[in-house]
C-alpha cells in the first residue's frame, strides 16, 4: 500500500492504531487485579498475499477475540476441572473468539472440479478458551489453554461471498470454482495446549526466551497432536505471551500488560503436527465430497517482530507450512498481522 512506502505514512499508521485503542492507559505498575477492570482485544489477519504472493491453498484467515481476567463462566470452569490434565493456578482468564478461514486450490481460474488439488472450503466459527497460569517464577512461567470451538463448514460459512467480494474490491480476478466447495457440515473442536516459558536475562533490559509447547486437537474439523518451540529476543518479554495465531498454529494470547516503556522483540519458532483428521483435505465427514490424500506430518516455521507500547501491541510475521497433501506442488507461505490492545472499563 502506498501509505507504507514512506516514513510519514508509517507514523500516521501508528498514530491511528494508538488513537483507535483507548485514550485511558493504566500505569505500568498496575497489578493484575486492576487489569480485571477491562479486557484485551485482538484482531488477526492471515493471508497468502503477504507470503507467497499467490492466492492458493490457505488463502485467508480472520479472527477477532476478547480476553478477560474475570471469573470464567461456570460451564467452562467445570469442563477444565473435569479434565485431570488441565491445571488451575494463580491467574485464570477466558478468551472468546469469532473467525473465518478460506481455502482454495492452486488453480482458481477453472470452473471445473480439480481432482488432484485441494477442495474449496470456508470455515466460520466461534470459540471459548479457558486459560490458566499455574507456575510464576522469576525465570519460568507455565500455563495451559483448554478450548472449545463450534462452527460451520460449507456454503453457510460465506467463504465464497467474502473472497469474491474482496477480490472485486481490490480489482483482481475472482475465483471461479466455488461451486465445487465442501458441503455444509457443523463442526466441533476441542483443543488443549500446554506452554513453558523460560526467561534468560542478557543485560540492559534485553532477555531471551525459550518456550516449548505441546498441543492436541480432537473433532470432525481437526484431529491432531503436535509440539514445538518458540524463541523470543527483546525487551519486556514478561509483559507479553506472544501474538495469537489462528489454529492450527503457534500458541499466543491477546494479553499485553500496559507499559510506559517501548517493548519489542523478534520471535521465531517451529511446530510439528501429526494429522489424523483435516476436513479441508479429507472432505466432508457424513457426505460425499471432494477430497485429496493428506500428508500425516505437517510442519510450520514462523518468524516475526512485535512492538508494544502502553496498552497496544502490533506484530508482523511470516509463516511457512510444509506440503499438506500428496498432490501439492509447493509449500504454503502466508503473512500474519496482529493488533492486540487493552481497553479499561
UniProtKB/TrEMBL annotation:
<keyword id="KW-0732">Signal</keyword>
<dbReference type="InterPro" id="IPR018707">
    <property type="entry name" value="LpxR"/>
</dbReference>
<dbReference type="Pfam" id="PF09982">
    <property type="entry name" value="LpxR"/>
</dbReference>
<feature type="signal peptide">
    <location>
        <begin position="1"/>
        <end position="27"/>
    </location>
</feature>
<dbReference type="InterPro" id="IPR037107">
    <property type="entry name" value="Put_OMP_sf"/>
</dbReference>
<protein>
    <recommendedName>
        <fullName>Lipid A deacylase LpxR family protein</fullName>
    </recommendedName>
</protein>
Amino acid at each position: 500500500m502506498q501509505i507504507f512506502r514512506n516514513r510519514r505514512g508509517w507514523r500516521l499508521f501508528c498514530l491511528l492504531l494508538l488513537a483507535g485503542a483507548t485514550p485511558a492507559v493504566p500505569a505500568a505498575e498496575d497489578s493484575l487485579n486492576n487489569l480485571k477492570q477491562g479486557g484485551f482485544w485482538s484482531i488477526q489477519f492471515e493471508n497468502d498475499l503477504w507470503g507467497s504472493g499467490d492466492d492458493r491453498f490457505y488463502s485467508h484467515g480472520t479472527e477477532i477475540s476478547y480476553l478477560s481476567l474475570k471469573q470464567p463462566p461456570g460451564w467452562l470452569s467445570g469442563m477444565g476441572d473435569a479434565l485431570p490434565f488441565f491445571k488451575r493456578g494463580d491467574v485464570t482468564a477466558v478468551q472468546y473468539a469469532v473467525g473465518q478461514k478460506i481455502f482454495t486450490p492452486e488453480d482458481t481460474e477453472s470452473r471445473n472440479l480439480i481432482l488432484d488439488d485441494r477442495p474449496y472450503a470456508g470455515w466460520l466459527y466461534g470459540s471459548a478458551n479457558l486459560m490458566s497460569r499455574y507456575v510464576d517464577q522469576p525465570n519460568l512461567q507455565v500455563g495451559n489453554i483448554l478450548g472449545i470451538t463450534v462452527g460451520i463448514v460449507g456454503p453457510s460459512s460465506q467463504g465464497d461471498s467474502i473472497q469474491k467480494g474482496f477480490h472485486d474490491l481490490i480489482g483482481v480476478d475472482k475465483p471461479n470454482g466455488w461451486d465445487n466447495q465442501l458441503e455444509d457440515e457443523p463442526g466441533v473442536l476441542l483443543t488443549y495446549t500446554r506452554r513453558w516459558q523460560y526467561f534468560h536475562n542478557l543485560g540492559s533490559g534485553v532477555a531471551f526466551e525459550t518456550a516449548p509447547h505441546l498441543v492436541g486437537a480432537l473433532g470432525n474439523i481437526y484431529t491432531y497432536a503436535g509440539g514445538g518451540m518458540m524463541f523470543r529476543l527483546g525487551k519486556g518479554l514478561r509483559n507479553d505471551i506472544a501474538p495469537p495465531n489462528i489454529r492450527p498454529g503457534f500458541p499466543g494470547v491477546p494479553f499485553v500488560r500496559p507499559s510506559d516503556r517501548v517493548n519489542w522483540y523478534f520471535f521465531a519458532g517451529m511446530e510439528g503436527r501429526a494429522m489424523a483428521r483435516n476436513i479441508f483435505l479429507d472432505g466432508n465427514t457424513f457426505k460425499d465430497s471432494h477430497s485429496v490424500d493428506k500428508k500425516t506430518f505437517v510442519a510450520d516455521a514462523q518468524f516475526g517482530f512485535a512492538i508494544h507500547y502502553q496498552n497496544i501491541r502490533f506484530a508482523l510475521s511470516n509463516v511457512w507450512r510444509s506440503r499438506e497433501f500428496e498432490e501439492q506442488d509447493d509449500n504454503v507461505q502466508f503473512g500474519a498481522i496482529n493488533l492486540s490492545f487493552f481497553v479499561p472499563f
